[in-house]
Description:
alpha/beta; two-stranded antiparallel sheet; eight-stranded parallel sheet
Amino acid sequence: MTVGATILDADGLRLSADESRFFRDANPFGFILFARNVESADQLRALCAEMREAVGRNAPILIDQEGGRVQRIWHPMARNWTAPLDFVNAAGAQAERAIYLRYRLIAAELFDLGIDVNCAPTCDLAMPQTHAFLHNRCLGDDPTKVAGIARQAALGLMDGGVLPVVKHVPGHGRAQLDTHFDLPQVDVDQDELDRTDFAVFQQLADLPLGMTAHVVYSALSDLAATISPEVIAMIRDQIGFDGLLMTDDLSMKALQGTLVQRTRASMEAGCDLALLCNATLAERRTVAEAAGSLSPEGQRRAQAALAMRVSPKPLDVDAAEAELQDLTGGAYV
Length: 333
């Protein structure tokens, strides 16, 4: 069966008949959920089942459940988590253990609902100039410490049966614009980027999934990383990331041109998957056609990533919550 090189979303709480037919034909690699898709636990499980039934396989289902502002599922279906940077600061020297427990509990919440991929952790460096839309979603400002904390977040998710997506490769922290609306440009020499932003992802290069940054790194290219062959080659060859690489949302205004042009440019640059969110059914059809099927290399990376999707390890929820309470001084929710 040919699998499409896309990750797509749905309009509402259940699939429409048109969406089911479209997903059957387009066979996207996976799906992504938003708050508009969430009403109750039973409803969400049913939606996930419908998505998988439409493509006839156990397709991965993604969500952005970082905590803080970027959290799609809230109490009573999930804990209301603090922003990642606030959480890390509260945990201090115990941040690695605390972040592991945080994302292990998040994984338990997601897995129970039928969701098996979380678009986290955000591995960008929090700098004085980091735009407010991103700053408190980061994990710190020191590359080595951020990589260590991010790895524990990823391990917490994987131990709970949920795959992590490291983002935004190769580093979004220096961007001073919100990529939902504008295209940032980072004018820093490559040696400095290698020591800082890029170094974080180099230490996480073995993880299964990554998401690109809609950011121009002028030392490497005059194009946003998502559509730059030079930057994607650097991610593969220098950073050493051989995981399945998806674009950030192609509907974001940081990218110019039609959706077809954006999709083709990202595929030609070397991305494995085109992520499209908050689009009409017609736009989803357009992107699915433009993206085509997973390339042979994409298929290999997809198989390797999905092979890391395993059953959750046992978890004593009460003990994890109590330990987390102690580690953060009660600041985790």
